[in-house]
Design a protein that fits this description.
By secondary structure, the protein is α+β, with helices and mostly antiparallel strands. The chain is built from 21 helices and 21 strands. α2 crosses α10. Bound molecules: adenosine-5'-triphosphate (ATP).
Length: 598
C-alpha cells in the first residue's frame, strides 16, 4: 500500500469529528488491506508503530524534526522556525516547503511498509550519535515523501498526529470491514483485543480466520490483558444489595495497579494499569515474584504500595509516585521507599488461563499459587453477608491504611471481564462516608494564563471527562487550586506536547481557554459537589436540556494519573452516576444546585 493513500485518509479523518464518518473512512481504507500492511496502517493511524504496551517511542524532539525539515527542504532552520510560528504546526510547514522541492514529483513512491520500517529505525536508534542518525533517516524519508505525506510524517514523529482515531472506532471498523458488522462480531473483536491488547494481531487473525478464528487468541506471557474495572455505590448496603447480599470484601490498597507476568524462565515483566511496561521501576518485585509463585508461567494482578518493612505498615501512595520516572538512583529509592505487592487476581496459573473461572475459584487458585514473601502478599479478604460485618471490615481496612474496600461478586459467572467496568467489582472508598464524592480523573484540554504569582504560566486548567459512546471529551471544570510550586513548575513542561492552536475536534466545551490542548494528561481532582451547568458539557442533556455537569470547588489532589491514558479518564456516564447518587444522598432541603464553578 502506498503511504499516499494513508495520508489522504488522514486528511479526510482530520476534517470530521463524527464517529460514524470516521468509521466509514476507516472501513474503506482497511478493507483492501492484508497483513502486514493492515497492522502497519492501524498502528500508524493511532500514532504508534507497535502495540502500546511495547512502549516504542520515537524520541524525536521538536528541534531535531525542525532540523530534518530544513535539510530536506534546503532552507535554513530559522526559516522553518519562523514559518512554523505562523502556521502553528511543523507538519504544515514541512508540506508547504516541500512543495517547491517536489515540483517533479517523487521518483519512487513511499509505501506504508517503507514508512513503518524507517520510523522503526528512528525509534531504535540509541546511544551516541543516535540523534544525528534519527535526523538523517527522517531527512531521507521527507525527501522521498510528497508534501501531504511529509505533513503527516512530521506530525507522526512529533506525536502530534491529530487524526483522532481511537481503539473503539478501529474495533467498529474491523468488525464492519472483515465481518458482518453485527453486535456479536463487534463483541468478539473487542474480546480478542481485551485479551491481547494488540490490534495488529486481532486484525490479522480476523482477516485470515474470520470472527470465529479470534477464539484462538489466548492470554500470553508478555502480552498484557486489559484490566477489569469497578463500579461504585454510595453505601455498603447498596453494595451488598447489588451482590445479592453476599460479597467478598477486600482491602482497597491505594497504590499502583500492577499486572505481573512471571514466566517459567526469564525476566518477570510488570505492566501498569494503562499497560505500560514498568518492570524497571520495581526491581525488588521482579526479583521476588519468582520466589513467591509456586507454579509458573503465571499472570497475577495486585496493588503496589509503599510499606515500612520494619513495621509492615502501609505508607501514603505519594511515596510510590516519587519512584516513577526515576531510573537513575533506583537503588537508593528502593531503600528509601520499599514497596510491596498485594495480589488480588490470578489470570494465568501454571500456564492455564483461568480468567474465565468464577471469582471464588480464582481466589482459591491464587491462595494456592502464592507463597507470600516479604514483598509479595495476598490482599486481605473476608466474605460478608450483612451490613454490620461489611462495616466492620471496612473500618479495619481503613485503619490498616487502605482507602476503602473492593467488593467482589461471588456469583456464578463472576469471570474476569477484561477491559470492562461493571458491578462484579464495586469500590467503596473512605470519602463516601464523610459526605464527599469520589475523586474524578479529568483530562486536561486547555490552559488559562495565570496572574500574580502565576504570571507567565498557566494559572488554571480546563478538564474534561470522556464519553466513549461518542468518543468525545466533555469539560466539567476549570481547576486552579491544589497545585504546589513543584506541580506548577512541572505542568507546562508536561503539557507542552499537547498544545494545539485550535480546539481539538474531539473536545466539547462552552469555555474557551487561552491555550487549547489535545487530550493527553490526566489529573485527579476532588470537589464539593456536582451541579448542573450551562457552561460545561459533561453528560450534556442528561439531567437538563442543553446543560452539562460541573464540579464545584474543584481541587487538584496532587496526583497526575500517569497510569491512565485520556480515554481511561472518568467517563461522562460515571460522572452522571456520581451526580445521581449524590442527589439520592442529599436531604430534600439541600439539593445540589448551587452555582457551578466556571
Ligand atoms: P478505575 O480503575 O475504576 O478507573 P481508578 O484507577 O481511579 O479507577 P480506583 O477508583 O481507585 O482506581 O479503583 C480501582 C482500583 O483499585 C484498581 O484499578 C486497583 O488499582 C485498585 N485496587 C486496590 N486494591 C484492590 C483490590 N483488592 N482489588 C482490586 N483492585 C484493587
Amino acid at each position: 500500500m502506498r503511504f499516499t493513500e494513508l495520508a489522504e485518509a488522514y486528511e479526510r479523518l482530520e476534517a470530521t469529528s463524527k464517529r460514524l464518518e470516521m468509521r466509514a473512512i476507516l472501513v474503506e481504507l482497511i478493507r483492501p488491506l492484508r497483513p502486514p500492511d493492515l497492522a502497519h496502517a492501524l498502528f500508524l493511524s493511532q500514532g504508534m508503530l507497535r502495540p502500546e504496551y511495547e512502549g516504542v517511542e520515537l524520541g524525536v524532539a521538536d528541534s531535531l524534526a525542525r532540523r530534518a525539515v530544513a535539510a530536506a527542504a534546503g532552507v535554513d532552520e530559522s526559516t522553518v522556525g519562523k514559518r512554523t510560528k505562523a502556521s502553528g504546526d511543523l507538519g504544515t510547514t514541512a508540506s508547504e516547503l516541500l512543495v517547491a522541492v517536489h515540483r517533479l514529483g517523487p521518483e519512487e513512491p513511499l509505501t506504508v511498509a517503507d514508512a513503518t520500517r524507517e520510523l522503526t529505525r528512528i525509534a531504535e536508534a540509541k546511544g551516541p550519535g543516535s540523534q544525528e542518525a534519527k535526523v538523517q533517516i527522517l531527512v531521507d524519508l521527507l525527501v522521498r515523501a510528497t508534501p501531504l505525506e511529509a505533513k503527516f510524517l512530521v506530525r507522526f514523529v512529533l506525536g502530534t498526529l491529530r487524526v483522532g482515531v481511537r481503539e473503539m472506532t478501529i474495533l467498529d471498523a474491523l468488525a464492519e470491514a472483515f465481518a458482518d458488522g453485527s453486535k456479536d462480531a463487534r463483541a468478539k473483536v473487542e474480546a480478542a483485543f481485551n485479551l491481547s491488547s494488540d490490534l495488529g494481531l486481532v486484525a490479522g487473525v480476523l482477516v485470515e480466520r474470520g470472527v470465529e478464528g479470534l477464539a484462538s487468541i489466548e492470554l500470553e506471557i508478555g502480552r498484557p490483558i486489559r484490566p477489569m474495572l469497578a463500579e461504585r455505590e454510595p453505601d455498603l448496603s447498596s453494595v451488598l444489595a447489588r451482590m445479592d447480599g453476599r460479597a467478598a470484601l477486600e482491602v482497597k490498597y491505594d497504590g499502583l495497579r500492577v499486572q505481573a507476568h512471571v514466566p517459567r524462565r526469564g525476566p518477570v515483566r510488570l505492566f501498569s494499569r494503562r499497560l505500560e511496561e514498568i518492570s524497571a521501576q520495581f526491581p525488588e518485585l521482579t526479583a521476588e515474584l519468582p520466589l513467591a509463585i509456586r507454579d509458573t508461567p503465571a499472570i497475577i494482578e495486585g496493588e503496589c504500595v509503599p510499606v515500612d518493612l520494619d513495621t509492615g505498615e502501609i505508607l501514603p501512595f505519594q511515596e510510590v509516585s516519587r519512584r516513577r520516572g526515576r531510573k537513575h538512583d533506583l537503588a537508593r529509592v528502593q531503600e528509601e521507599v520499599p514497596v510491596c505487592l498485594f495480589a488480588f487476581e490470578v489470570l494465568l496459573a501454571g500456564g492455564t488461563p483461568v480468567y474465565g473461572r468464577s471469582f471464588p475459584e480464582r481466589r482459591a487458585l491464587l491462595e494456592g499459587l502464592l507463597k507470600p514473601t516479604e514483598r509479595v502478599r495476598l490482599a486481605v479478604q473476608e466474605v460478608v453477608h450483612d451490613v454490620p460485618a461489611a462495616t466492620r471490615f471496612f473500618e479495619e481496612a481503613v485503619a490498616a491504611g487502605g482507602e476503602g474496600v473492593m467488593a467482589k461478586s461471588l456469583k456464578e459467572g463472576s469471570a474476569y471481564r477484561a477491559g470492562a467496568r461493571g458491578y462484579w467489582w464495586i469500590k467503596y472508598k473512605r470519602e463516601y462516608t464523610v459526605g464527599l464524592s469520589d475523586s474524578i480523573d479529568g483530562v486536561v484540554v486547555g490552559g488559562f494564563h495565570g496572574r500574580g504569582r502565576r504570571a507567565g504560566r498557566f494559572g488554571a486548567y480546563l478538564l474534561a471527562v470522556y464519553d466513549p459512546a461518542r468518543d468525545r471529551f466533555e469539560t466539567f471544570c476549570k481547576v486552579g487550586t491544589g497545585f504546589d510550586d513543584a506541580a506548577l513548575a512541572e505542568m507546562p513542561q508536561r503539557l507542552a506536547p499537547f498544545e494545539t492552536p485550535a480546539r481539538p475536534p474531539s473536545v466539547e466545551s462552552g469555555l474557551t481557554p487561552d491555550q487549547w490542548m489535545r487530550p493527553g494528561l490526566v489529573l485527579e481532582v476532588r470537589g464539593a459537589e456536582l451541579t448542573v451547568s450551562p457552561i460545561h458539557r459533561a453528560a450534556i442533556g442528561a439531567v437538563r436540556a442543553e446543560a452539562g455537569l460541573a464540579l464545584r470547588f474543584p481541587r487538584f489532589t496532587g496526583r497526575i494519573r500517569d497510569d491512565k491514558g485520556p480515554t481511561e479518564a472518568t467517563t461522562s456516564a460515571e460522572l452522571l452516576r456520581m451526580y445521581r447518587s449524590q442527589v439520592r444522598q442529599a436531604s430534600p432541603k439541600d439539593p445540589p444546585t448551587g452555582p457551578a464553578s466556571p
